[in-house]
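dude i think i finally got it to work??
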Amino acid sequence: MIKILQTENGAFMINNELSKHAVLSHWIKENIENNTFKIGEKIPSENELASRFMISRQTVRQAIGTLVAEGILVREHGSGTYVRLPGPKVSAEKTMRIGVITTYLDDYVFPGIIHGIEEILTNNGYTLSLGITHNKPADEENCLVQILQSGVDGLIVEGTKSALPNPNERFYEQIEEKRIPIVFINGYYRGYNGSCILLDDVKAGEMLTNILIENGHSLIGGIFKSDDQQGIGRYEGLLKSVKKNNLSVNDDSIIWYTTEDFNYFFEGRMDKIILDRLNGMTGVVCYNDLAAAALVRLLKRNGKAVPEDLSVVSVDNSFLAKQMVCNLTSIVYPAKKIGRKAAQLLLQHINHSKKPEQVILEPYMKIRDSVKKLI
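look at this
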């Protein structure tokens, strides 16, 4: 019989007929089963366990090694030991389910992406398990755990905060070990060498800047999202265009925001700061139509208009670009095409184990009336 006794000082003492490392292994398993140690979380360190149970670190190491061999725990060098992501439910056949994880679902460009994915997968007999992250790594972790526990044959993922280090890297490593194919859309994490479907964001930023320069603008600012790969690429495109045209960038006129900053930046309290940062600029390249629409509203409540006082260009060609009074010039985001291509590529991996492929889509621009001609 296994007995773990707690002493007055809070330490645990093992009192049983089994080996000490076997008892510790059992205790760790129990804490995983009762959700004290959650999937993906780090368990106490070897030193802490040795102190708590009054046993040697060698015994602790042996207990952990047993659970690592069983696939219950995973060691990460320099970081610690984590509860391993469980594999999909065992089945002799395919699950005929695909996990789809995106940052948002029912607004902006996302319905088009989902419809494109669904069209291809449904025609091939698959169903979708959807997960929404709201661009939060913790939500992405929950999505990965839930979808994989239900069992899937593959994943289509829009990475969360793809410009930043990925806190869920260990989950993706385990998914790779289980040979579950993944296709990323819109961006991918640093070090990822698998398949992805992307708009050429650098070229998109370059094209938007070019249209401003062609219309006589030389003082060009920007509003970009800093925590997603697309924002970095579009800013790089602005720099390329400016350099090719022998112009310079005023760093103060490049405004960066994160997902969490967006509402705070554009709800009104930051109006003066943003206007001061853009003072003297005649044109602005925006990360997407959401940012452009927020800028247009900011200008309007401060007595300014597009394009009379400031020319504005953007990416996505969403309903915002078409419905805004200024008729926004915007790069077309081929949402349904990206969804379809992602699904087609994933099915190729599932059925034929095709080598990883990066598909970069060529951007094209819808020109409207948001750019004032200065020459």
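The longest strand covers residues 97-102.
im so relieved honestly
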